[in-house]
Amino acid sequence: MTTALALTNLEASAGGRQILNGINLEIPFGEVHAVMGPNGSGKSTLCHVLSGKTGYEITGSARLDGDELLALAVHDRARLGLIQCFQYPTEIPGLRLREFMLEAASELGIENGAARIVEAAEQFDMTRFLDRSVNDDLSGGEKKRSEIFQMAVLSPKVALLDEVDSGLDIDAVREVAAAVDEMRSPEVGVLMITHYSRILRFVIPDRVHVLIEGKIVASGGPELADTLEAGGYERLRAELGLQAAEEQKAPAPDPFSELPFEG
Ligand code: ADP
Ligand code: MG
What we know:
It is built from seven helices and twelve strands. It is of the alpha/beta class. It has a single domain, classed as P-loop containing nucleotide triphosphate hydrolases (Rossmann fold).
């Protein structure tokens, strides 16, 4: 099996502060890898650096199916088959989901875009949203489902899911997890970032990695998520002999992160 995403000594800093401290990670095609970590450990930064957000100083390497990503512009990374599912999907009033997807599919040279959109919309229960504005007035769970629907249409080689479960109630988590599970295929590698292990009850990852202070400090099978669930990050930190993280300041609280989007 070839490697969908290979990260070697990936380091990133911003504002004079080192955030990612040498990440090594390989996700083979066909696998789902979960990256778990406390607030402020660098999970979103990892996604941003991979998808091409500017403003970071970056060293190391990130290869998608063998191609180096780090020097490329965002749209060129997307053309190679990278997609990011956002933690807070943006509402775009005035742009219909169907038109948005037709344009994206055509940019990627996908044939039968219109038919694929209809088919994926049925699969992910998005048909009634196709002729509404992208994410406009959707619930938290519907927005996340829409992100997964978009991935299904665009068939990425690598999907980055940043806290796809955040802000959702348990039924919505289960629904989004089912959608992620349907994305599993030998043609895609999935990097699923999560703070809580609850989504991993519904999408069983092939591997779990723990990110603390910008470094992967432990990797294992799905049982690692259970260990974390039982003892929290602090116990793992103690077991690994890591210092309690006085420096690991959480980012300023995001006013939207705790919104009860659903129910
Ligand atoms: P997570 O997603 O794991 O909660 P983030 O990747 O958002 O964490 O942030 C990791 C750390 O890096 C935090 O301490 C955050 O404040 C800091 N950070 C993120 N982006 C920047 C930036 N552009 N400039 C300075 N510090 C940043
Ligand atoms: Mg984050």
